[in-house]
TrEMBL record:
Domain NTF2-like N-terminal transpeptidase intervals: 140-191
Family, similarity comment: Belongs to the class-D beta-lactamase family. Belongs to the transpeptidase family.
Protein name: Beta-lactamase
Top-rank taxon: Bacteria
Pfam families in the record: MecA_N, PBP_dimer, Transpeptidase
Organism: Raineyella fluvialis
Reactions mediated catalytically: a beta-lactam + H2O = a substituted beta-amino acid
Domain Penicillin-binding protein transpeptidase residue range list: 406-675
Length: 678
């Protein structure tokens, strides 16, 4: 008796294992003319199969309690058995899980329909998004039962929330679902389905120097395969033909086509509308389609691509890894700033759901009013220091270079990175800002600062012998070193002629730490959180005396990027420590001993002499101050060499790097001359 009293008071009812797991409370009202284990056709019963709640008992219900207790004494647990004997809570749970997973296999229906197949059709346009379904209070009225269903579809732009109803019939002693499309949404029918449409947010622009947009929306054509327009057995052949016609990887494109839906458009290549030259072989392929659109693009396909990156489309793996924030086919950043700041630039796409005919492909259905519409949130702009004109000139200077090469320009006052260009062969590699190379004799600017701090002046006397031996290792000057530069000379002329032996001969005047400190005062050798791929150089302690001698001439363990060496030139020209930066939000702070005005003046005298009297004399009139460099690398005999030149003029410091060059003057110098003009 106590168990049935608990039923009337709204506590849990013993409905079997499934119901006990779901904490199913029950409030039963007595029927008429019933016997234990049976319900009359006019009986009604209400059950909440979700979260256990304390039932509210009205005044009327309280007045009914004595009569109910009397009836329960006669009927035992009839109210509980009405549900458990025919398994309705279990059926509701199965429906809930099936709607959430998309698998209704094995679900019992009263009308002989296949709910699984119909559910697939109803939600085939929802891009794989599944809802969360919450059943409400079960209401039983004789041989019929209804269950309110609350749907929550989670989209990046917001959650779509609505209510639907599932109905059940009791036949043959069991409950069965009266499946209908309205179980999924009240407005669906046997000929319609739900279609999700992504409303892309406006991607944030990448701004250059002065806030001028350098990456902005430009017209495009996207070429691809529309699977909805050709028979399924022709899809692979068309995909192969499209890949061949567009010169893309055939197998990778086939994999993407296989992974897309049966009526999907699978993009293959996006090209700029102002340079559109579409292959006739592509146009002749069945299923080939061209979509007009816009995409965030730089001024040219190569414009600072190693720094900026590009915008591509998400594949299935990227969409899965995003946890639902990105769908397959969404625009995403690929490499560089576009990838690192993708969340900021991408914004939040909008989401719309419409009801469309089942036999119309998702991308081709009309645009009726949406039953759900969450508007997109535009991405935020990213501010950089790149100057479009300067970057364009730098890339033009490198356009004819084969192999790895880079050219960097830095503002000598602020350290703003104005250009970071790479050769066509380097493509998207961030060589200009992130490359790690021995700087060779350009590092003699750093060695000169260390020697100045040790007490020398630009006119201090030094010896420049043909060779010098350190711990059994013999060092010489470069093969074309002028004989007039040998013998007694000055620090200024030793650097102007790039005398290795003179620098190494002063090794006892400075310690490795003093050399490292001098580099830091010129913005080189200390790491900074620059917010983009940036290498500011490395001047580690040498392992032995030979390594110490190598460091004085920019060999051994010393490394720098073109950007870092442009910073060295900018520090000399600007008269203070300059650390190059690209993003206003990540502007580094120099924390080294500052470069003094006296030191800067002495270094300017030395670098100006390189142009007027030394190895950069071919750039007289183009550069105010400079330093050339040639750095050996690799294990070949004779070794291969990197070619360098750094310099400054009119508030701009520059660095040119050629991966395989003959000398700084012969290989890197002409690049700076082309960049700056004669």
């Amino acid at each position: 008796m106590s168990r049935c009293i608990a039923v009337i008071m709204g506590s849990s009812c013993p409905l079997g294992a499934a119901a006990r797991q779901r904490s199913v409370p029950l409030l039963a009202r007595p029927g008429r003319g019933v016997t234990p284990g049976q319900r009359g056709p006019e009986d009604s019963l209400t059950v909440t199969p979700r979260v256990a709640k304390t039932a509210r008992v009205s005044r009327t219900s309280r007045r009914m309690v004595p009569a109910a207790l009397t009836l329960i004494l006669l009927t035992g647990t009839a109210g509980c058995g009405a549900l458990t004997q025919w398994g309705l809570p279990t059926e509701v749970t199965a429906l809930e899980h099936g709607l959430e997973s998309g698998n209704l296999a094995g679900l019992r229906t009263s009308n002989g329909t296949d709910p699984g197949a119909d559910l697939n059709a109803l939600t085939s346009g929802m891009d794989g998004v599944r809802p969360q379904v919450t059943p409400g209070r079960i209401s039983v009225n004789g041989q019929k039962a209804t269950v309110p269903l609350t749907y929550d579809w989670a989209f990046p732009a917001g959650t779509w929330h609505y209510d639907a109803t599932a109905t059940y019939s009791r036949t043959g002693g069991k409950w069965a679902l009266d499946w209908a499309p309205t179980t999924v949404h009240p407005s669906l029918s046997a000929t319609t389905r739900l279609v999700h449409r992504r409303t892309q947010a406006t991607r944030g622009q990448i701004l250059g120097h002065g806030g001028v947009p350098i990456v902005k929306e430009r017209d495009t054509f996207t070429l691809g395969l529309d699977k909805s327009t050709i028979p399924a057995d022709k899809v692979d052949d068309s995909a192969r033909r499209i890949a061949t016609a567009l010169g893309i990887d055939q197998q990778r494109y086939l994999d993407r086509v296989h992974g897309a839906g049966a009526i999907a458009f699978v993009d293959a290549l996006t090209i700029r509308a102002d340079r559109a030259q579409v292959s006739p072989d592509f146009i002749a392929t069945p299923g080939a389609r061209i979509q007009k659109g816009v995409r965030q693009l730089a001024p040219t396909a190569t414009f600072a691509q190693g720094v900026l990156g590009s915008v591509g489309t998400a594949d299935a793996n990227q969409a899965k890894a995003s946890g639902g924030t990105i769908l397959e086919g969404d625009p995403i950043g690929v490499g560089g700033l576009q990838q690192r700041y993708d969340a900021q630039l991408r914004g939040k796409p909008g989401d719309r759901v419409i009801i469309a005919p089942r036999d119309t492909p998702a991308g081709q259905s009309a645009d009726p009013p949406a039953i759900f519409n969450a508007t997109p949130t535009a991405g935020a702009a990213l501010e950089t220091t790149l100057d479009e004109s300067t970057q364009t000139k730098a890339e033009q200077a490198l356009s004819g270079v084969h192999g790895s090469a880079a050219l960097v320009a830095v503002d000598t006052t602020s350290g703003a990175l104005l250009a970071a260009a790479t050769s066509p062969d380097d493509a998207a590699n961030p060589t200009a800002t992130f490359g790690r190379f021995a700087p060779g004799s350009t590092f003699k600017v750093v060695t000169s600062l260390a020697l100045l701090r040790s007490g020398l002046t630009p006119d201090s006397a030094l010896d420049c012998p043909p060779n010098v031996t350190v711990d059994g290792r013999t060092f010489t000057n470069y093969s074309e070193f002028p004989s007039r530069g040998l013998g007694r000379t000055t620090l200024r002329m030793a650097v102007s002629n790039s005398c290795n032996t003179a620098m190494i001969g002063q090794r006892d005047r400075i310690t490795p730490q003093q050399l490292t400190d001098a580099a830091a005062s010129l913005g080189l050798g200390k790491d900074h959180d620059a917010g983009f791929p940036a290498f500011y150089g490395s001047v580690p302690p040498p392992a032995n005396p030979v390594g110490g001698a190598e460091a004085l001439i920019g060999q051994g363990l010393v490394e720098a990027s073109p950007m870092a060496l442009a910073g060295v030139a900018a520090s000399v020209a600007g008269g203070h420590t300059v650390v190059p930066y690209l993003l206003e939000a990540h502007r580094p702070t120099a924390d080294a001993a500052p470069l003094t005005a006296q030191e800067a003046t002495a270094l300017q005298t030395i670098m100006q002499s390189v142009v007027t009297d030394g190895t950069a004399s071919a750039l007289r009139g183009t550069l105010t101050g400079a330093k050339t460099g040639t750095a050996e690398y690799g294990t070949d005999n004779p070794p291969k060499t990197h070619a360098w030149m750094i310099g400054y003029r009119d508030g701009v410091a520059v660095a040119a790097y050629v991966g395989d060059g003959t000398s700084g003057a012969a290989s890197a110098g002409p690049l700076l001359k082309a960049f700056l003009g004669s």
